[in-house]
């Protein structure tokens, strides 16, 4: 990836030459990109590196599977020591072993007691231009709002609040492409964040904090509830529905079921969404029809194409399969999804 031009960096007079003992807190795919970069840096400069990640929990049907987090898989492959934690007390028990903490998508507040025990405190890679989109879901919010740009920030770790540290370094504005989604942005900003993090460590930006000139307004990107994936056809445009899927994955809606004089409301999951081009004979938001191999659905502004449909209690279907089995599965209802 092309090197990121940096908008602003907090400068200071000297850089520590001491050996770093780094506790890297992470969990997801975004954090693995920074871990890989820091691992290579530590190998080159003989710094100590340990990974701290949430404890593994049973998953799957019957809770009989144990699947490692992406950060755990990478740390294992690189033979990096791993500490798995469930509570703040577990983290505090690891105090006084490290002189710098790095947190990238860890998902939990790192206790002030632990940070205080680190000579250089802690730093965090955050995928937004802070203080814009402070919080747990910055990538999702910039997509849901159909922003034209985003960026990445390295900040210090605040002992009691998320995303309230001092900004140390920040990327230039990064364009969000028309067809970007969560995965593509995660990779793009992950690489930029890793580059910023290595520069932060290499220049010792964590040891002294200069005054950062900020030009962005504060906004909160709080955790998004599952209900945000529901489509309200009379309130959203085709572009907004597409951006919902880009940010959150498959969306859902509801359809009335009228079979054998019994009525019900079933959830329907929609996937493979694109904006429909051209005219279609649909008048009311939520109405749908089969066009070629796509299910075309009317919104309050334009229509969308859908590639996969999964009705409640049923297997995933193609649009043709959904329409062909409509009378059997849905009954006498009209071709219209409801809010």
Share of helical residues: 25-40%
How do the helices and strands follow one another from N- to C-terminus? EEHEEEHEHEHEHEEEEHHEEEEEEEHH
Quick one: CATH class of the largest domain?
A: Alpha Beta
Write the CATH architecture name of the largest domain: 3-Layer(aba) Sandwich
Strand content: 25-35%
Q: Give the low-pLDDT segments.
A: 1-16
Number of helical segments?
9
* C-alpha end-to-end distance: 43 Å
Tell me the domain tally: 2
Radius of gyration: 24 Å
Biggest pleated-sheet summary: 8 strands, mixed
Q: Output the CATH homologous superfamily of the largest domain.
A: Formyl transferase, N-terminal domain
**Envelope shape:** elongated
Structural class: alpha+beta
Give the strand tally. 19
Strand arrangement in the largest pleated sheet: 1-11-10-8-7-2-3-6
For this structure, the CATH topology of the largest domain is: Rossmann fold
How confident overall, as mean pLDDT? 92
What would a concise description of this structure say?
By secondary structure, this protein is α+β, with helices and mostly antiparallel strands. The protein has helices spanning 29-45, 70-77, 88-92, 112-117, 138-144, 182-202, 238-248, 319-324, 326-329; strands at 6-9, 21-26, 48-54, 58-59, 65-66, 82-85, 100-104, 122-126, 149-150, 153-156, 167-171, 174-175, 251-259, 262-271, 274-275, 288-291, 294-298, 303-306, 308-311.
How does this structure look, described?
It is a single chain. This protein is 25% helix and 25% strand. It is built from nine helices and 19 strands. Helix 1 packs parallel to helix 6 (182-202) and helix 5 (138-144) runs antiparallel to helix 7. The two termini are 43 Å apart. The model is unreliable at 1-16 (pLDDT under 50).
